[in-house]
From TrEMBL:
Domain (Pseudouridine synthase II N-terminal): residue spans on this chain: 43-185
Name of the top EC class for this enzyme: isomerase
Gene of this entry: truB
EC number annotated for this UniProt entry: 5.4.99.25
The entry's keywords: Isomerase, tRNA processing
Alphabetical list of InterPro entries matching this protein: PsdUridine_synth_cat_dom_sf, PsdUridine_synth_N, tRNA_psdUridine_synth_TruB, TruB_C
GO function terms (MF aspect): tRNA pseudouridine(55) synthase activity
Domain called tRNA pseudouridylate synthase B C-terminal: residue spans: 186-227
Residues annotated as the enzyme's active site: 52 (nucleophile)
Gene3D superfamilies: Pseudouridine synthase
Role this protein plays: Responsible for synthesis of pseudouridine from uracil-55 in the psi GC loop of transfer RNAs.
Entry keyword annotation includes tRNA processing: yes
Protein name: tRNA pseudouridine synthase B
Family affiliation: Belongs to the pseudouridine synthase TruB family. Type 1 subfamily.
Length: 232
């Protein structure tokens, strides 16, 4: 890897760790690459699709002229390994906020779960979580929500291509979901809980694919201070 190659364009596949923002991961990469290769201040770098801090997995980072590929990569279908907990909810639809609204789920069967999941296949209407980066009147929704303001999110169409590898160990349910751009898996978890009538929230999320790019080809070594990039 050379500075010229990085500026001409390169794609890095990163395995984003828990509690890092996508912005932090890109900044870490930018700092290390600039230091390693003596790159100019205006060196171009950006990620192709945000991952929530409470999610892990595939984060694609493009450099140089390949930053023009970002919109194309963002439009590609995504795949996530997903774990939800039923019988309880959180305001954020994930583990950022504490559990609320505990409900008895003892009457929910495995068949009920599979039937509920089937109802979300295909094109669906989905409301993004209030704790999301969507802008409302120029302000991020999560900033408004964290300030205690009432936030009304508009529904949008999204597509669930498949739900597979379902494992049920009440109250925990896990599965792999393939979906279109703009799908909020936190909202999917919440909506599954509403369909079951007992509530649910997202406990773990790991992005495993974006288009043809796979998590198996990603690295987390960018976090190591002495890591050199010849191997990427």
């Amino acid at each position: 890897m050379t500075a010229e190659q990085l500026q001409s364009g390169h794609i890095f596949l990163l395995d984003k760790p828990l509690d890092w923002t996508s912005f932090q991961a890109v900044n870490k990469m930018k700092y290390k690459l600039k230091r390693e290769f003596d790159l100019p201040k205006k060196f171009k770098i950006g990620h192709a699709g945000t991952l929530d801090p409470r999610a892990t997995g595939l984060l694609i980072v493009c450099t140089g002229k390949f930053t023009k590929k970002i919109p194309e990569i963002q439009d590609a279908p995504k795949e996530y390994w997903t774990e939800i907990k039923i019988g309880v909810q959180t305001e954020s639809y994930d583990t950022e906020k504490p559990e609320i609204f505990h409900q008895d789920f003892s009457n929910v069967t495995e068949e009920d779960v599979k039937n509920a999941l089937d109802k979300f296949l295909g094109e669906i209407e989905q409301k993004p979580p209030v704790f999301s980066a969507i802008k409302i009147d120029g302000e991020r929704a999560y900033n408004l929500a964290r300030a205690g303001e009432e936030v009304e999110m508009k529904s949008r169409k999204t597509t669930i291509h498949y739900i597979k590898d379902i494992e049920i160990n009440f109250p925990i349910i896990s599965f792999t979901v393939g979906c279109s751009k703009g799908t909020y898996i936190r909202s999917l978890a919440h909506d599954i809980g509403q369909e079951l009538g007992v509530g649910a929230y997202l406990t773990q999320l790991r992005r495993t694919k974006i288009g043809d790019y796979k998590i198996e080809d990603a690295t987390s070594d960018f976090l190591e201070n002495e890591y050199r990039f010849e191997n990427l």
